[in-house]
Each structure stands twice: as C-alpha cells, then as structure tokens.
Design brief:
There is one protein chain. The protein is α+β, with helices and mostly antiparallel strands. It has one domain (24-96). Helix content is 45%, strand content 14%. The chain has a two-stranded antiparallel sheet. Strands 3-4 form a two-stranded antiparallel sheet. Strand 1 (2-3) and strand 2 (9-10) form a beta hairpin. The protein is elongated, with a radius of gyration of 18 Å. The mean pLDDT is 75.
C-alpha cells in the first residue's frame, strides 16, 4: 500500500519482486521444477531466485541448455530462448579469449 501526495492510498495487487520466492503458490511449483530437473539431468546443483535458474554441472557432463529447454517445453514451462542464446554466445566468446 502506498500513500500519495494527495492523501490517497494505492493498493498494489501484484506480488512485488522477490516476494515470489516465499509465496506458496509460486514456490511449490518452482520446487517441483527443480526436483524434476535434478532427477532428469546430470547436474550438481540448481540454484533458483524468483524466475531465474542456475544449473551447475561438472566439466565432464554433456548436458546442454537445449536439453533443458526441450524438456521444459514438453512440461509446459516456458523458458527464455533469448537468455539461452546469450549464454551460448558468452560461452563461445570465452572459448576464443
């Protein structure tokens, strides 16, 4: 709730940034997503913050983000292809530096 300079009150009906992590209606599906991904893929850990996921794999793992995106599509979870493209570009650039 916010009080304006005109002495009016505004009620925000949206979940504020960061509030999603503690909210059961969002947190539980996100926990289920993490559990599925940990069981299906060769990863050491998955860290989550709101709608971001960091997959940690060993140097010997053959897991690619395209595998994660493909499985997410099958499950009806939409991931950002733009983020995936950026990660692949950064990976290529790091190999050439």
């Amino acid at each position: 709730m916010v009080r304006t300079f005109d002495d009016e009150f505004l009620l925000d009906t949206r979940i504020s940034f960061g509030g999603v992590a503690g909210c059961g209606s969002f947190g539980r599906p996100a926990d289920a997503w993490k559990t599925l991904m940990m069981k299906e893929f060769d990863v050491l850990a998955i860290f989550r913050w709101v709608d971001d996921n960091l997959f940690v794999k060993s140097a010997h793992s053959d897991l690619e983000m395209t595998d994660v995106v493909r499985r997410a599509d099958q499950l009806g979870v939409k991931l950002s292809y733009w983020r995936k493209a950026c990660l692949q570009t950064q990976k290529r650039n790091a190999l050439h530096d």
